[in-house]
Structures are given as C-alpha cells and as structure tokens.
Specification:
By secondary structure, the protein is of the alpha/beta class. The chain has one domain: Metal-dependent hydrolases (TIM Barrel). Helix content is 39%, strand content 14%. It is built from nine helices and eight strands. The chain has a five-stranded parallel sheet, sandwiched between helices. Strand 7, helix 7 and strand 8 form a beta-alpha-beta unit. Helix 3 runs parallel beside helix 4. The radius of gyration is 17 Å and the shape is globular.
C-alpha cells in the first residue's frame, strides 16, 4: 500500500544538489506519487524539468501562488494559461489568498483566485487552495462559484472546525502536513472532528517538516511521519488509513493509479 505526497515543492533550488536521493528516499518510503504545485512563471521550467526527469512519480499542477500576485498578475496568469494550452495538469494550484505578509494586493489576489477557478472548470480539474489569514475572503470567492464549484483541497489547513466544516460542505478535502505534529498545534483537536476519509496528506516541502524532523529541510519521504501521527490520532490501523487516504487522493486528482 502506498502514500501520495499531495503537495510538494521539491523542484525548488533547495533540492538541486541531491534531488535523485530525495526521489529515491521517497520511493523507499512507499511514496507512489509526488504532486507539484506551481508558484509563478519562473517556477514553471523547474517543474517541467523535474517531471521530465521523473515522470513515473512527479505530476504537475499549474497556477499562480497568491504571494506572487501583484500589479502584473495578468501577465502571470497568461503564462499559466499558455502552459495549460499545451500541457496536462492534474490541478490548478496552488491558488488562493494570503494576507499574512501584506494586504496591498488583496483585490488582485481575489481576481486572480476567481480567474483560476474558472480555469479549473474549463479544464475539468480540481483546485488546490492556499489560505493564510484569509478564510473569510476565500469563502467569499468560493461562494460566487457555488452553482458549479470545482472539487478541491484546502492545502496546509490551519483553520478551526467551522472553517473545515464549510469546506467539507462545499465538497472540498482537507490537506494536512507536518503542522499537525507541532507541540502547540490546535489541529489534532480539530481533526478529531473531521472524518479521516476527507483528509489528504502532504509535505509542502521544503517547508513545515514534521516532528521528529522539525527544523530540517522537509522532503517527500518525511510524509510517513505525518501519516503515522494521524494513524495514532485516529486510533486506526495504518494499512487501513493508508488505503483510505490513497484512494481519496487518487479520486480527487483523477490519477487512476492502482494501489
């Protein structure tokens, strides 16, 4: 039985010196696929290169991260749309709204988020949503699409139960990473109220390495620590949980891969 790292940036420069080892360690820890969300126009070539080198395990998404949405955001969206016209993505991501660092481009972020949801509809693929200090704004945009909202996942979920409940009611899954294992995290109590059948797991490499690797560069092989934490949290047999999470991820992204 395998796992899928549903959100990983192992195409970044942090991995350029030992990417082959990173991929080998992932496979050795039963990681079947690594899903790669895009950041901006500059990262597209990095993703393309990694997918061409490791097509058996790496799969691309396409989207513009909200932290890279500024006054020139329409040019960024054009790069993404041009790529989609020539290539197949498993999702539009990562997209969304981030108001943690600054709020200067909130209007542009909302417009870009809305536009990229439309791209997901056009290509009949799910969305992978980034949300930081912006649940109200995220829900405002999603509600405008409620008649034909794409499926999707809120990656790196850090909200409260009421936020998760709204997402589940919209047909979204909840993305969980190493944050759940942090000592002061409130997520374990939130996740206990969420059916494990609705959860995806991710690393968000190179960020947010789980305990016992916290503080280190995260990588896809570390997904196993988050998985084991969840199995203990839910008090469920590891093989059973692994199969359920694998099937949830496989279904959301229409991967059509065998267990």
């Amino acid at each position: 039985m395998y796992l899928i790292d549903s959100h990983s940036h192992i195409y970044l420069d942090e991995f350029k010196d030992n990417i082959a080892e990173v991929i080998d360690r992932a496979k050795a820890n039963d990681i079947k696929k690594i899903l790669l969300p895009n950041i901006d126009s500059n990262s597209i070539k990095q993703i393309d290169k990694l997918v061409s080198l490791y097509p058996d395990i790496c799969l691309p998404m396409m989207g513009i991260h909200p932290c890279y949405i500024e006054s020139n955001y329409k040019n960024e969206l054009e790069h993404a749309e041009n790529w989609l016209s020539q290539n197949k993505a498993i999702a539009i991501g990562e997209i969304g709204i981030d108001l943690y660092w600054e709020k200067k481009y909130i209007k542009e972020q909302k417009e870009a988020f809305d536009y990229q949801i439309e791209l997901a509809k056009k290509h009949n693929i799910p969305v992978v949503v980034h949300c930081r200090d912006a649940f109200n704004e995220i829900f405002d945009v999603l509600q405008t699409h409620k008649q034909n909202l794409p499926t999707g996942v809120l990656h790196s979920f850090t909200g409260e139960y009421q936020d998760a409940k709204k997402l589940l009611d919209m047909g979204f899954n909840i993305g969980v990473n190493g944050i759940v294992s942090f000592k002061k995290s409130h997520l374990p109590e939130v996740l206990k109220k969420i059916p494990y059948r609705e959860i995806l797991i991710e690393t968000d490499s190179p960020y947010l390495a789980p305990v016992p690797k916290r503080g280190k560069r995260n990588e896809s092989s570390y997904l196993i620590y988050t998985f084991k934490f969840l199995a203990e949290l839910y008090k469920i047999d590891e093989d059973k949980l692994k199969k359920i999470i694998f099937n949830t991820t496989n279904r959301l992204f229409k991967l059509n891969i065998s267990e």
